Amino acid sequence: MKTKSGKLFRQAAILAACLLPLWCQPALADRIKDLASIQGVRNNQLIGYGIVVGLDNTGDQTTQTPFTTQAIANMLSQLGVNLSQDQAQKLQLKNVAAVMVTANLPPFSRQGQSIDVTVSSMGNAKSLRGGTLLMTQLKGADGQVYAIAQGNVMVGGAGASSGGSKVTVNHLSAGRIPGGASVERAVPTMLGQGGVVYYELSSSDFGTAQKVVDAINRSVGAGTAQAIDGRRIAVRTPEDADSRVAFLGRVENIEVQPVAGLAKVIVNPRTGSVVMNQKVTIESCAVAHGNLSVVVEAAQPQFGQGADIQVKQDGVSLMSVKAGANLADVVKALNALGANPMDLLAILQAMKAAGALRADLEII
Known about the structure:
- The protein is α+β, with helices and mostly antiparallel strands.
- It has three domains: about 45-155 and about 165-185, no CATH class; about 195-255; about 265-364, no CATH class.
- Helices cover about 25% and strands about 35% of the residues.
- It has helices at about 1-25, 30-35, 65-80, 85-90, 205-220, 240-250, 325-335, 340-355, and strands at about 30, 35-40, 45-55, 95-105, 115-120, 130-140, 145-150, 160, 165-170, 175-185, 195-200, 225, 230-235, 255, 265-270, 275, 285-290, 290-295, 310, 315-320, 360-364.
- The strands form six sheets. Strands 3-4-5-10-7-6 form a six-stranded antiparallel barrel.
- The protein is flat and about 80 Å long.
- The termini are far apart.
- It is found in: Bacterial flagellum basal body.
- InterPro entries: Flag_FlgI.
- The basal body constitutes a major portion of the flagellar organelle and consists of four rings (L,P,S, and M) mounted on a central rod.
């Protein structure tokens, strides 16, 4: 009897030792700053039209891009050089390119701060490498000037020569200027009103919103957070600005375990990519597409059982899958049968229309 009890005790000890790493493993959680953002705290897009000079005969062909010559004439007139209309039309400057300049103005930006800008050719320039962007006004959606951009354009690209031919890798008609714009006007940012700050989840989910509310109230104090709907959460903050910033910094780093999101399948027919955000199962169905046939049987699969691929005698490829199988197994089996991206898309759409695919199907 003692021997049997000792044996059971040793087995229990071994089982506990095996499960201890699983018990001690911390649960995966996200910070609130990764799940939500503060309402009103966002970037603002800026855009401007400019001229890049100093190119090595890789600029616009001014005969085919009249806006380039017009921009050059307007710029020279502001610098005291007046050109007639005929003279402006005869300009042949291959070292000049008309570009669009874009940038993002971060929240709480102030005058004098530097931001990065992106310079993109809008004409037929071959390359912007080695060019210099002249002073360009960057405007917001309201037409006001918020930044001024100028500087040397950095364009990535590697060239290789083989057998007398030159091959250029990477895109040369767009580049960046790190810190190339100076902020001239600040955008007022309201950080809450009446002692309340609203957090907005990146995607609407009632379960995740409730978990965020519970985590904030548990960490800061009961009644601090309240869910408005499936996306917005109202959080009471201190009135003092310094205390509010410290409070929000603490709230942003609170960890939350979000609930499982909506099952979704994303298909890119151009590249044949299929992405699933979680385990998606399919119900009983039968799909015939060209020489491909998909049959999902009603029987439930055994643990670890995947798709069973067979071939009919008449040469038509047949794939037999148990109901409840993982969609990843179905996609893998279809690829093994030689299905192209369009075949895969048609089969998934048919499964979705028949109600067998229990997930949202998104085509990008």
